[in-house]
C-alpha cells in the first residue's frame, strides 16, 4: 500500500540526480524524440507524474498549539480535472515512446513489459481523472509509482542508490 510519504521519499532521492545529470552529458542520438532516457525522465516523465500525484494529496500542518491539522486537496473545477487527465495522457505517450526502437534497443524483454505497464496504468489513471474520482486518482497514482519503481529496480538510474542512501534519514 503506497502512501504519500513514499512519493516524498522518492522525490528526495531523485532530486540530487538532476544536478549530477548536468555534469554528465553523454552522446545524444538524434532520433530520440525526448533526448536520452535520462533527459526524458528528468524533463518530461517526472514533472508530468508530479502533476498527477499532486492532484489529490493530503498535507498535515503542525499548529502553534501543537495540534495537527490534516488538509485534503483535490481538483475542483473541470479545468483542473482536465489537467490531471492530460498528465495521464502524456504519461501514456511517454510509455509508447519508451517502447520504440530508439529507447528499447539494447534492453531486455522486460523493458517492453515495464513500458507497456506504464501505458496500461496511465490509461487507468486517465479514466480515474475523467471519472473525477479523487480516491481512484490517489489509488492509481500509487500503482503508477510502483510501475516507475519496478523499471528503476531493473534499470537503476546511475546515482539512485547513493542518493537514496543519503536521503534515508530525512
Ligand atoms: C521502462 C523503464 C522505465 C520506466 C517505466 C520509468 N523509468 Fe524512470 N528511468 C529509467 C531509466 C533507465 C533511468 C536511468 C536513465 C539514465 O540515468 O541513463 C530512469 C531515470 C529516471 C529519473 C532520473 C533522471 C535523472 O535526472 O537522472 C527520474 C526522475 C525518473 N526516471 C522518473 C520516472 C518516473 C516518475 C516514472 C513513472 C511515471 C518512470 N521514471 C518510469 C527507466 C524507466
From TrEMBL:
SUPFAM superfamilies: Cytochromes (SSF47175). InterPro entries: Cyt_c/b562 (IPR010980). Residues 1-21 form the signal peptide. PROSITE patterns: PROKAR_LIPOPROTEIN. Keywords: Signal. It comes from the Bacteria. The keyword Signal applies. The keyword Signal applies. This is Cytochrome c domain-containing protein. It comes from Aurantiacibacter flavus.
Amino acid at each position: 500500500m503506497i502512501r504519500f510519504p513514499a512519493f516524498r521519499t522518492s522525490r528526495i532521492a531523485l532530486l540530487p540526480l538532476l544536478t549530477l545529470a548536468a555534469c554528465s552529458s553523454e552522446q545524444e542520438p538524434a532520433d530520440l524524440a525526448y533526448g536520452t532516457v535520462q533527459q526524458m525522465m528528468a524533463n518530461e516523465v517526472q514533472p508530468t507524474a508530479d502533476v498527477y500525484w499532486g492532484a489529490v494529496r493530503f498535507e498535515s500542518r503542525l499548529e502553534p498549539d501543537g495540534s495537527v491539522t490534516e488538509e485534503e486537496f483535490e481538483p475542483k473545477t473541470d479545468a483542473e480535472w482536465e489537467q490531471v487527465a492530460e498528465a495521464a495522457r502524456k504519461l501514456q505517450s511517454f510509455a509508447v515512446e519508451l517502447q520504440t526502437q530508439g529507447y528499447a534497443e539494447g534492453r531486455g524483454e522486460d523493458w517492453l513489459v515495464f513500458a507497456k505497464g506504464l501505458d496500461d496504468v496511465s490509461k487507468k489513471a486517465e479514466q480515474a481523472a475523467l471519472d473525477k474520482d479523487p480516491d481512484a486518482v490517489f489509488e492509481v497514482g500509487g500503482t503508477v509509482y510502483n510501475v516507475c519503481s519496478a523499471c528503476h529496480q531493473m534499470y537503476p538510474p546511475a546515482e539512485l542508490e547513493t542518493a537514496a542512501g543519503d536521503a534515508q534519514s530525512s
